[in-house]
Amino acid sequence: MGKGGQVPQRASDFQSELCSPGPVAAKLGRAAPPAARDPLLAAVPREVYMDAASNVPSASYYKDLNDKVADILERQRTGAKTAPPIELSHVVAADGALVYPNRYLWMVWVYSAVAIYLICQAPSPAVVLLGVPAMYLCYDVYSGVTHVNLDDQRNLAGLKSYILFQGCLEFQWHHAIPVDITKKSFVACCADLNIIVAVSVVINCVALRYTTGTAAALTGLKLFGAYFGQYCHRSAHTPKSKRPRVAQYLMDKGFMCPQNKHLGHHKPPHDANFCLVGYCDGIINGMLKHCGTNDWVWFGFWLAFSFGDVYVVNKVLTAAAPSVFAA
C-alpha cells in the first residue's frame, strides 16, 4: 500500500535478512548454514507460515511462481540491479514463508454449487435480475476494502496477521510479479479465494442464517461476484492478444476495469484504484482521502463489510421495492 500503509522502514533496513543466504538458498535447493531470524520479523508470528513449506505444490504453475520468488530473493541478496525494491513481504518470504501455496481447485466447484443453491432460494426471478447489479456494485466496494487491507504491510504482523497473512503475502508479491495471476488457470485464481469465500458462507449462511429468501440469493450473488472479480483482475493482466473476447467486450462497455486503469495501481506508491471490477474506485479513493490509512480503521471496514454488506443491501432493496424483495 502507499503512504501510511507501509511499515516505516527503509529498504536498506531489510538487508540483514536478505544478505543471509540461508532462506534463499534453501528455496533454491542449496545447503546453507542456519541463520538467526531478522529482528524486523519479531512482530510477525512465525506460526502463520512455518508449516507452509510442507504444502508441496501439486501443479507446475505453483512451482514456477515459487521459483520466481526464489530468483527475486537471490537477486536482492546479491544486490542485482534488476531486483525490485525490498519489501517486508520479501523479508518474510526469505524467512521461509511460501508465497504461492497449493490450493484445492475442487472447492471452487463446491462453492459454486452452494452459490447456485442460494440464488435458487430467491422469491422470484425479479429478485435475481435486480440483485445482480446491486451485488455487482456491492462486491466491487468490498473488493476495494479487502484489497486495501491486503496491500498493507502492517497486516503481515500482529494480531491481524492471523487472519490476513497469506492474502497479504500474495497480494504484495503480486506487485513484484504482476503476471502471476495469468500463470494460473481461472479456476486456480478462484481457488485463491477459498478461505475468504468460506468465511463469507459461514458469516451469511451460518451466523446470519441467510439460507432462504432474498438474503440467501444476495449471498449467492456475492460469491459469484468474488469469482467475477478474479476474472476481471486476471483479464486486466492478460495481454490483449490473449484476452478472451467476452472480457474485452465487457472492458470496452465499461463493465470491467480497463487494463490501463488497473495497471496504474501497480505503479508506486500503489495507493489508488483498489477495486477489482473498477466501477467503485472513486468510493474507495474517497474513503482513503477522508478516513486516512490507519490499518485498524480499514480492518474495521473489512469486518463491517464482511458481516453486514448482504444485510444492508437486503434492507435497502426491501425498503425500495417491498413487493419484490420482501421474503
Task: Give a concise summary.
The chain has 327 residues and is mainly α. It is 59% helix and 0% strand. It has a domain at 108-326.
Provide an overview of this structure:
It comes from Aureococcus anophagefferens (Harmful bloom alga). Keywords: Membrane, Transmembrane, Transmembrane helix. Residues 137-290 form the Lipid desaturase domain. Its main location: membrane. With 327 residues, the protein is mainly alpha-helical. It has a domain at 108-326. 59% of the residues lie in helices and 0% in strands. The protein is built from 15 helices and no strands. It has helices spanning 15-18, 21-27, 60-78, 88-94, 106-119, 125-150, 161-176, 186-191, 194-207, 213-236, 245-252, 259-265, 281-291, 295-320, 322-325. Helix 4 crosses helix 7 (161-176), helix 9 packs antiparallel against helix 10 (213-236) and helix 10 (213-236) crosses helix 14 (295-320). The radius of gyration is 21 Å and the shape is globular. The termini are far apart. Residues 2-34 have low confidence and may be disordered.
